[in-house]
């Protein structure tokens, strides 16, 4: 797909889609009007309603991704598409394509690696309903507590990325928890980022949300826990070690006193349990030290990969 440069940089609009046939043609048209110089890609996640055909008719390049899950689609998008700047949005028509230019300008002017379009609801229905907003605030606060503050809308799907961010992103998640991973990757790299408010509207008629508040919220919390274990092993395993050591002392100290007073160990099973728990605590402490050194080495490798890719600059 032939493109022109915008401020010296090539732009790719990447749209993950699953059963968005009623909306995708308008979304492609809106982004084509907003970014006439960009290549527009629709990554169809095995839709059954003709999304791919509608996107082709609208002029987008369609790439099929058969493995279900938004995380799988993002992994494929980041691997297959080559550009200096990537504009990612959902294919349901909820995001304002005209705001994309503002996000890209912020990325270029600020020499940033990611700009998130935070959602300002303009919907009259329940598209951005209370449960989703509450869950977003809860999960955003959890990530801020563990990995550092900075984001207010962690789960927004409207984002602009630099090439060096995209090509250094491992994309381990499979589903909607991918936005959590995108956020944490920026925090871990200490990559420069920003947030800008953007309008968030209703879905196109005939489409329905693929997000379920409780199931996907639980999956996102699980992803946060998994990332915490992987990226903060020292804190995680030392916390386990401390809890185990305290439990072992609570169980074992009375037995030690009894032994000192009587020379007997009348509660042998409890004594054995206390010893096993303390051994587990010591093992967790050892894991904390070993895994922390591994994570440090991996973070250095990720940082070097990131720094090996040219930053976005106006040329």
Structural commentary:
With 315 residues, the chain is α/β, with parallel strands linked by helices. The protein has two domains: 11-230, Alpha-Beta Complex (Spore Coat Polysaccharide Biosynthesis Protein SpsA, Chain A), CATH 3.90.550.10; 233-306. Helices cover 52% and strands 13% of the residues. The chain contains ten helices and seven strands. It has a seven-stranded mixed β-sheet with strand order 3-2-1-4-6-5-7, sandwiched between helices. Strand 1 (11-17), helix 1 (21-34) and strand 2 form a beta-alpha-beta unit. Helix 7 (178-189) packs parallel to helix 8 and helix 9 runs antiparallel to helix 10 (268-307). The longest helix has 40 residues, at 268-307. It is elongated. The chain starts with 10 loop residues before the first strand and ends in an 8-residue tail after the last helix. The model has no long low-confidence stretch (mean pLDDT 86).
Q: Could you list the spans in which at least 5 consecutive residues all have pLDDT below 50?
A: none
- Computed over alpha carbons, the radius of gyration is 24 Å
CATH superfamily of the largest domain: Spore Coat Polysaccharide Biosynthesis Protein SpsA, Chain A
User: First CA to last CA: what distance?
Assistant: 22 Å
CATH class of the largest domain: Alpha Beta
Helix content estimate: 40-55%
Compact description:
This protein is an alpha/beta fold. The chain has helices at residues 21-34, 51-57, 70-80, 100-109, 130-147, 163-166, 178-189, 213-231, 233-262, 268-307; strands spanning 11-17, 39-44, 61-64, 85-88, 114-121, 159-162, 193-200. Helix 1 links the parallel strand 1 (11-17) and strand 2 (39-44).
